[in-house]
Amino acid sequence: MPYRSLKVFVVCLLCLLAASGSAWAGEHGPVLELGGQPNYDLAPYLQVLDVSESRLTIDQVSTEPWNRHFKLLGGPALESPSRDLRIHWLRFTAFAPKGSVAAKTTWLIATDYVYLDKIDFYRPAPEGWEVVKTGLNRPFATRELANRSFVFTLPQTDKGLFTCYLRLETKGFNPLHFYAWPLPAFISHTTKESYLFAICYGVLLSMIAFNLFIAISLRDRVYLYYVGYILFALVSMTFLHGQVTALWDFGTQTFVTMLWVNMGLFTAFAYLFMRGILNIRSLSPLVDKLLLFGFCYGLSISVAGLMNLPWISRWLTLGSGIFSPWLALTAGIVSLRRGFAAARYFLLAWGVLAAAVAIFVIQELGLIQGEYWARNSLLVGTALESILLSLALAARIRDLKEERRVLAESENRFKNLSYTDGLTGLFNKRFFSLHLEEALSSGQGPNDRPCLLFIDLDDFKLFNDTYGHDQGDLVLQGLAGIITDRVRSNDMPCRWGGEEFAVILLGATLESAAAIAERIRQSFAQYAFSPNGQTVRQTLSVGLARAQQGESSAEFIRRADQALYRAKRAGKNQLYVSAVKPSSP
């Protein structure tokens, strides 16, 4: 074959290869042909320079001998598990066919990762290299396009092949992807994302504002736990997805610290809210202890973040993402089986979040690569959960109202059966005798045994002799009011007889019962009476006992009465607690 014919054949063959494939082996490895797709994943075209030399410049890595050390990425994403600061050089080669629509379009390169300390993008220019330097450790204004992640403009694509370089300076990161976007498709994608973020953040803000108003109105701690949970969820999402970087130039260290502190508080408040809304403390002590462990676990995430141990915070968070949904669902099932109707909404809410968390954890571990809904699953799941949990809170209010209605009816029945004292309005001795037996028979467990307070006015006979029995009746009524205000809703305050009162405290420890007794004693000591225009204060003495296993009501009453007698002998105006038998469990 003549030499000239051979040259023509080779040229035609090269042109045919360039026109027929979207990627072919060029000087710098596979070449990306930009065409009509909405975006291109750069992973098959990225090459990595794996060196420890941190002082290399663009002029060095783009020429001999360093440019021969680049190797194909060889995977769906760039990963770096290092906890130390590392330098990574990347490059890719692309072109758009001349005269095509792609050649007339502005193209961008973008990453879905927002935690890079520094990222430098080098693109060829007539005078050499044009560089854009940005990253978390640089002001937000250094970003070529204002975006939550890092976006750069590619050079003109109709000039033939071009090679761009990326220099990353950061600590270890999760799977990192780069995509090439035509400008119209990127605008459409960003707009869709913005709508999603606006809707989800709007839902979270609405739930915070609405339930904060209810919390202030009702003074209910469960609503405050909910508000704290959703608030820290919202803040965590803005860090996780990078929107917060547009508000303030944190720097990588501060950014990462605040991210994990908020993620930890997000987790801790989740467990506080679970304990409150499910009333799990009284329904299942074992599950309650597990929820308390979860609360401490969440705080440990924040502590690790404050101690500049983000890798520990990350793995603790991923661990929480694995066991927290199951623990929440278990608590909800226990609460529902014990008759708490609002747990239905709670189970539905955590079922939604459990699915979202599972997808997010799988994505963070790199098992799902670059999927749009996987990256945003936690945000969407949290927004949906916040709505369902708000419904659970509304159901809880209905349940509380129903409980109060039933309690009011029960109180009316007790009054109709003459179980109240006519002077003080407290339960009488007949009521006391009947319900003490019930409390002892139903409180056989070590945490369910009742406590008994015996309360007696000090020197009440002298008061009656000095000011008259009508004034003494006012003192008894005043004490009855103080006792009623200081005991819990399920306790049973009774008038034992004369100036002596008794209170059955259900499921109370000695410490909590002593605190109630002290509140009654101190409040009464500060209460002023005005017989005949004089200001007079009275005191009282209190005896306290806690039921022992197998103890009869008579023995229980005797121990409480002896404790009261000892309080009197010790000087009055004080509390005496009956000693616990050594054989008691």
Considering the chains and any ligands shown, give keywords for the structure.
3 domains, single chain, Alpha-Beta Plaits, alpha+beta, 8-stranded mixed sheet, Immunoglobulin-like, 5-stranded mixed sheet, 585 residues, elongated
Write up this protein.
Helix content is about 50%, strand content about 15%. The chain has three domains: about 160 residues, Immunoglobulin-like (Sandwich); about 180 residues; about 160 residues, Reverse transcriptase/Diguanylate cyclase domain (Alpha-Beta Plaits), CATH 3.30.70. The strands form five sheets. Strands 1, 2, 4, 5, 7, 9, 10 and 12 form an eight-stranded mixed beta sheet that branches. A five-stranded mixed beta sheet has the order 16-17-15-20-21. It contains 16 helices and 21 strands. About 35% of the residues are buried. The protein starts with a helix and ends in an 8-residue tail after the last strand. The protein has about 575 residues and is an alpha+beta fold. The longest helix has about 40 residues. It is elongated, with a radius of gyration of 37 Å.
